[in-house]
Design goal:
Blueprint: H1 7-13, E1 18-23, H2 30-38, E2 42-46, H3 54-67, E3 70-74, H4 80-88, E4 93-96, H5 102-112, H6 136-146, E5 148-153, H7 156-160, H8 162-166, E6 173-177, H9 178-184, H10 194-210, E7 213-217, H11 222-230, E8 235-240, H12 241-260
Parallel strand pairs: 1-2, 1-8, 2-3, 3-4, 4-5, 5-6, 6-7, 7-8
Helix pairs in contact: 2-3
């Protein structure tokens, strides 16, 4: 059996936008189908801030592979052991938060890529291959190619070091965590602040220079989403399940209560 293609990486390599749906509250195999039907390309399975377990993330990832949506798991910054287990059990990408230095970025690549790019341990058979055993050398090279590694830029230190972070071979995306960035800057929630705009410009320039993709997270209003996408953001987190559900449910509730008078 052939390897399931990472459709999000394919879109990014063509220069297209890849739109993600954050999953914190929802669970189960219906999640990828909902995302696909709604027009999303990838799932942001959040094990950093959500209560999602590795088993729950893996079950959603299995369903996502069949639905044609890319399962991408965010782990905690110091939990690369969970990242490799997520990849072994269906994930096609990993997001690592709070990457502030090139040394941290290099350690992530080392942990998540197979030799010669890294030192990831070989697990045998994978959901990405339909659990069919594949020749190790061929499969490792293919999995290296089809696994997305995303480093989050969330602090002024990371922005200051972005040139050297972007230069680390093996990274695919630099994802700006805009909410955390504004918090660390002492301007929480000021998404259009000049320091935030300057940070996006710096990260975008480093991505262009080193062949990485600029990612945008935490920006959901029309004005600033448009501004930062014009700088080249193509790996875009479109929102989280709870927020989108509450917005739609709240609108419907207000409409129906209005009819009742």
């Amino acid at each position: 059996m052939t390897l399931t293609e990472n459709l999000t990486l394919a879109r990014l390599r063509r220069g297209d936008m890849a739109l993600g749906l954050g999953i914190q509250a929802l669970r189960g195999s219906v999640v990828p189908m909902l995302a696909k039907t709604a027009g999303y390309d990838w799932l942001f399975l959040d094990m950093e801030h959500g209560s999602m377990t590795l088993d729950q993330a893996s079950q959603i990832a299995l369903a996502a592979l069949m639905a044609g949506v890319t399962p991408i798991v965010r782990v905690c910054a110091d939990a690369l052991h969970e990242a490799t287990r997520a990849l072994d059990n269906g994930a096609q990408g990993i997001v690592v938060p709070h990457v502030d230095t090139a040394a941290q970025a290099a350690a992530i690549v080392q942990a998540l890529r197979y030799p010669p790019q890294g030192s990831r341990s070989w697990g045998g058979s994978f959901p990405q291959y339909g659990l069919t055993p594949a020749p190790a050398a061929e499969a490792q090279a293919a999995l290296n190619r089809e696994t997305a590694i995303i480093a989050m830029i969330e602090t002024p230190e990371a922005v200051a070091n972005v040139e050297s972070i972007a230069a680390v071979e093996g990274l695919d995306v630099l994802l700006i965590g805009t909410q955390d960035l504004t918090t660390c800057m002492g301007i929480p929630g000021q998404l259009g602040h000049e320091r935030v705009r300057a940070a996006y410009e710096a990260v975008a320039a480093a991505c262009r220079k080193h062949g990485r993709v600029l990612g945008m997270g935490g920006i959901y209003d029309r004005e600033w989403a448009a501004t930062y996408m014009k700088l080249g953001a193509r790996f875009v987190l479109g929102g989280a399940d709870s927020g989108l559900l509450l917005a739609a449910a709240g609108e419907r509730a207000r409409f129906l209560r209005g009819l009742a008078g």
